[in-house]
Design goal:
The chain is an alpha+beta fold. It has a single domain (about 5-105), classed as Alpha-Beta Plaits, CATH 3.30.70.120. It is about 20% helix and about 35% strand. The protein is built from two helices and eight strands; from the N terminus they run βββαββββαβ. It has helices spanning about 25-35, 80-90, and strands at about 5-15, 20, 25, 40-45, 50, 55-60, 70-75, 95-105. The strands form three sheets. It has a four-stranded antiparallel β-sheet. The two termini are about 25 Å apart.
């Protein structure tokens, strides 16, 4: 797959404890993106944050949260991202979803025809 130039970055902000059909929501989102053959997804775990209800989520020992912020980032062509949005709307009951323009410089995977670095 070639992915260069102007693309879209989808960010999904959810809680670590959010679930979809008994599984962690962030994991279900990544699996759904993979099944739809989106270019890739990355899950980032936050150590401090708050959402709409202003409840602070932190990893501080004295304020240990069991629901840390999680961000799923997906970059792909706008049409593929937009086709994924209705499914996300079903899955994400609480959270924030954003989309912005990004310029992809390189998207590479080592494979046939590419020499391995020594």
């Amino acid at each position: 797959m070639k992915l260069e130039g102007e693309q879209k970055l989808l960010r999904i902000f959810v809680g670590e404890q959010d679930k979809w059909e008994g599984r962690p929501l962030y994991e279900a989102i990544v699996d759904e993106a993979r099944a739809r053959r989106l270019a890739g997804a990355t899950v980032l775990k936050g150590f401090l944050g708050f959402g709409r209800n202003a409840h602070l989520h932190t990893v501080k020992i004295l304020e240990l949260s069991e629901d840390l912020p999680v961000i799923v980032e997906i970059v792909d062509a706008e049409d593929k991202i937009k086709a994924f949005l209705p499914r996300l709307d079903e899955m994400v009951k609480e959270g924030l979803i954003t989309m912005e323009a990004v310029h992809v410089i390189a998207y590479r995977a080592e494979g046939k025809g590419r020499a391995k670095k020594a």
